[in-house]
Amino acid sequence: MRASSGRAWTAVALIVGAVGVFIGPRWVAQRLVGDGGLLDEVTAGVWIFKVLLVLHAAALVALGRWGYGTHVEPLIRLPERTHESVRGIPVPVLLAGALLLALGLRIVDLGSGLWHDEIATLVEFGRLSTGRIISTYTSQNQHPLYSLLASGCFALFGESAGALRLPAVLLGVASLGAVYTFGTMLVTRRESLIATLLLAVSYHHVWFSQNARGYTGLMLFTLVGTTLYLRLLAGQGRNRHILVIGYAASMALAVYTHLTAAFAVMAHFIVWAVLAKRRRAAREAGGPAGDAVVRASFAALVLAGTLSLQLYALVLPQLREPLFAVAPELGDTPWRNPLWLVAETMRGVAYGVPGGWFGLGAGIVVALAGMLSFTRRSGPATALMVLPGVLIATALVALNHNLWPRFFFFAAGFAVLITVRGVFALAASVRPRSGPAIATVLLLLVATASATTVARAWGPKQDYAAALAWVERERGPADTIAAAGLATYALKNWLQATAVVGVEHVAGLERLEADAARTFLIYSFPDHLRAASPPLWRHLRTEYQRVAEFPGTLGGGTVFVMSKP
Predict the structure, then answer these.
(1) pLDDT tens digits along 94-106
(2) Average pLDDT, stretch 430-442?
(3) Rounded mean pLDDT of the chain?
(4) Closest CA to 64 of 308, 305, 247, 299
(5) How many whole angstroms separate alpha carbon 499 and alpha carbon 471?
(6) CA 304 to CA 108: how far, in whole Å?
């Protein structure tokens, strides 16, 4: 069996290596992007792709022949996995019911108004060919895997807001199944089911599952990868090769969805390094010597990194400017202030949980109890859940990057599992015998209350269409419609509003005013406009009056209409 498996690995390796050796970089680059401005960068990317293919061919041969050792000594001990049944209804039926409920809640009003980042995804990437998508990285708005999935949905269903968001829906529902699977590694099936149900009826999860971005995919692949890594560290599974490749593929897809997933891999490496150091110290002190788990879990990390590079190889020469360029005109926005991140995150969470700020405060207390309980059960597993977010926040602050709360959504499954564990732990400390029943009832009541907040996630994320329609109804024959800031992009590139004139400076707006009986101006994201063009912002505040506003479900995404007679 081992010999035939080795031959299969070798055969696949030969195919991969042959592709790497014989593909022509310039020829491939021309097929991907033509003879345009990206040709040289993509050609260099194809060279990187070739080298990595050859390296991965060698890695496949090594994986087929390399044993990790016969003595398996786990690096971590997971809690005893209880097989507590849920009385009356089989667990698979309950899980399927939760997932079907989640799907139903996420397809309601799926085609409503897009917000700026979704529009940029549609215009800049979703409409491109597959070759252009995988070889283009011109802005951080490119979530490559999501762009590919959106393009596929357009091919199947035609271009629409619903088709653009469909991958987020499916990835979001799948992420709930991943929450359950990960949870059963550490807690009971009852707790895992309740956590899945809470996310199924969560305002925040529904909102992100209707957001045409890669965040639900990032959550899914991070959960799957972390589950597989836990199994590796615990020495589970008969075939560690499968776990190694599964982990590496999951985390590479997470990174290909959003680059912040690289910090999850870094967090996993830190946990591995600490555990490996302890193992080495224990071996030197005469303890168990098995290195199979150490070697397998390290190989998984390395392969995750190289596979991520393989997926990004074509665009690696393009990454520097989109990732590290800082717009100096936006230095005055609050988006890079850690205090703003904390305040905005708390505001957003409070808006979508039962009880608002009170519910948030209670949730924090319960989550702390859950964190303590998880740490007692398995400190390394707790670190795998918490450390990625800490690393992301640290890196964003160090790089003076915008601190968007959405960068941390991937950890929502971990957060809910920690909170559920806290409720069960607190209930057990008060009533040891009836604690699980009490916790179950309380959390089901919370889920019921949470379901009442889901409707807040439905509707347009930004209502540019309604704002434009209102202005077109109100305008007279001699009136002019202008747009400023990010609203210009949406109105011109998505809604194709040919009558709208984009303005960036006061002088341009004043020229429009001079030739019009009345001037309407549409804008959104006041913080951005204020920072990008202070004189224009002052002109609007002093010379114009607000005549209409169109809120959306995106925090701070209200579309405003100003008028000057």
Answers:
(1) 999 999 999 999 9
(2) 91
(3) 90
(4) 299
(5) 11
(6) 36
456: Cα separation from own chain's centroid: 21
- DSSP state, 315? G
Q: Which of 59-68, 74-83, 125-134 has the weakest average pLDDT?
A: 59-68
Write the DSSP assignment of 194-207 as a string of letters.
Answer: HHHHHHHT-HHHHH
Long-range contacts of 333-336 (CB under 8 A, 24+ apart): 333/402, 333/527, 333/528, 333/530, 333/531, 334/527, 335/402, 335/403, 335/404, 335/527, 336/400, 336/401, 336/402, 336/403
3-state secondary structure 240-284: HHHHHHHHHHHHHHHHHHCCCHHHHHHHHHHHHHHHHHHHHHHHH
Half-sphere exposure of 473 (CA within 13 A, CB side): 8
- The closest of 222, 246, 223, 221 to 296, measured between CA atoms, is 246
> Which positions ≥6 away from 387 have C-beta within 8 Å?
267, 270, 271
Question: Hey, what are 13's tokens?
Answer: 């390796």
* Average pLDDT value for residue range 65-92: 70
Q: How far is CA 205 from CA 58, 215, 253, 443, 448, in A?
A: 41, 10, 20, 17, 15
Tell me how far CA of residue 181 lies from CA of 93, 95, 187, 228, 304, in angstroms: 15, 11, 10, 10, 21
d(CA 276, CA 72): 14
pLDDT digits (tens, 9 = 90+) for 276-321: 998 888 777 765 556 788 888 999 999 999 999 999 999 999 998 8
The CB density around residue 35, as the number of other CB atoms within 10 Å, is 8
Per residue in 323-380, pLDDT tens? Answer: 876 665 555 677 778 888 888 888 888 888 888 888 888 889 999 999 999 999 899 9
The mean pLDDT of 159-182, rounded to a whole number, is 97
Q: Selecting from 3.40.30, 3.40.190, 3.90.700, 1.10.12, what CATH number does the domain 464-564 have?
A: 3.40.190
Other C-beta atoms lying within 10 Å of the C-beta of residue 170: 18
Report the alpha-carbon distance of residue 264 to residue 408 in Å, rounded: 11
Which tens digit of pLDDT belongs to each residue from 471-497?
999 999 999 999 999 999 999 999 999
Of the candidates 394, 258, 237, 377, the one whose C-alpha atom is nearest the C-alpha of residue 300 is 237
- Coil, strand, or helix at residue 14? helix
Give me the residue label for tokens 């990835």: 171
Task: Give the residue-averaged pLDDT of 544-565.
Answer: 94
Count other Cβ atoms within 10 Å, centred on residue 93: 11
172 and 208 Cβ atoms separated by less than 8 Å: yes
Extents of the domains making up the chain: 2-65, 91-457, 464-564
pLDDT at 404: 84
Distance of alpha carbon 212 from alpha carbon 347, whole angstroms: 22
Which tokens in the block code for residue 378?
């398995």
User: What pLDDT does 83 receive?
Assistant: 53
Residue labelled with tokens 């491109």: 128
pTM value? 0.93
